[in-house]
UniProtKB/TrEMBL annotation:
The chain holds residues 189 to 410 of 418 of the full protein. One of its GO terms (biological process) is pantothenate catabolic process. This is Coenzyme A biosynthesis bifunctional protein CoaBC. Pathway: Cofactor biosynthesis; coenzyme A biosynthesis; CoA from (R)-pantothenate: step 3/5; Cofactor biosynthesis; coenzyme A biosynthesis; CoA from (R)-pantothenate: step 2/5. Residues 11-222 are annotated as: Phosphopantothenate--cysteine ligase. It catalyses: N-[(R)-4-phosphopantothenoyl]-L-cysteine + H(+) = (R)-4'-phosphopantetheine + CO2; (R)-4'-phosphopantothenate + L-cysteine + CTP = N-[(R)-4-phosphopantothenoyl]-L-cysteine + CMP + diphosphate + H(+).
């Protein structure tokens, strides 16, 4: 039986990819499966937390005891996250692979092949972690993720500072067998100067490791 180390904690988690529509049939997205984010929601619920999972399009099943809200685009995800902060939130875990860009124009009618602008004009999406960090209702702990191919720790450390995350979980996406879209993962948890390496394991094991680590440094109110 899992220890209820997050009992009474309210946790908000983002998961999956986002979908940035061009028209009703087409859009931009990425390879995220949602599996790691769903596993995290399961591990947090097992640890006794009250979990809201805000997810982009995925085929994953909602774990028992987890509340789930489905969204499509990065902007929808941001709106849903900020709305969720209306209820005091202790921990925000940003696992979603949010699309960095969206098509600048959405056409409500399906475009013909030749009507699609080439090159396709793109706009930069808002950063959800930064927005949650700047919000007056900021959760006590913000955990971000970074999928990197090189200079992992340095890049992720800078990213955490820039976005205002307290912890950043870095994973290497050089191998097709690990991370995005794969069944297994391996990562390093960076918290200021501290680094904890979690060797290759299943996504649920990694989620449980992460929850154990989080609960060890999160001071739970009596
Ligand atoms: O900058 P990069 O996309 O590598 O950062 C990844 C981290 O930032 C993840 O925690 C992801 O959920 C979050 N993110 C976000 N909003 C964005 C882009 C990334 O919250 N628009």
């Amino acid at each position: 039986l899992a220890e209820k180390t997050l009992r009474g904690q309210r946790v908000l988690i983002t998961a999956g990819p986002t979908w940035e529509a061009i028209d009703p049939a087409r859009g931009l997205s990425n390879r995220a499966s949602g599996r790691q984010g769903f596993a995290l929601s399961q591990a947090c619920a097992e640890a006794g937390a009250e979990v809201l999972l805000i997810t982009g399009p995925t085929h994953e099943q909602t774990p028992p005891g987890v509340s789930r809200l489905d969204v499509l685009s990065a902007r929808d995800m941001l709106t849903a996250c900020l709305q969720a902060l209306d209820r005091p939130t202790d921990i925000f875990i940003a696992n979603a692979a949010v699309a960095d860009h969206r098509p600048s124009h959405f056409s409500a009618q399906k475009l013909s092949k030749t009507a699609i602008a080439n090159p396709l004009p793109l706009s930069i999406n808002p950063d959800i972690v930064s927005a949650v960090h700047r919000d007056s209702r900021r959760p006590r702990y913000i955990v971000a993720f970074a999928a990197e191919t090189h200079d992992h720790l340095a890049t992720a450390g800078t990213k955490a500072q820039r976005k205002g995350a307290d912890v950043i979980v870095v994973n290497d996406i050089n191998s097709a067998e690990l991370g995005m879209g794969a069944a297994e993962n391996a990562c390093s948890i960076l918290q200021g100067e501290r680094v904890l390496h979690i060797p290759r394991c299943s996504k649920i094991d990694l989620a449980r490791h992460l929850v154990r680590h989080l609960s060890s440094f999160i001071s739970l109110p009596g």
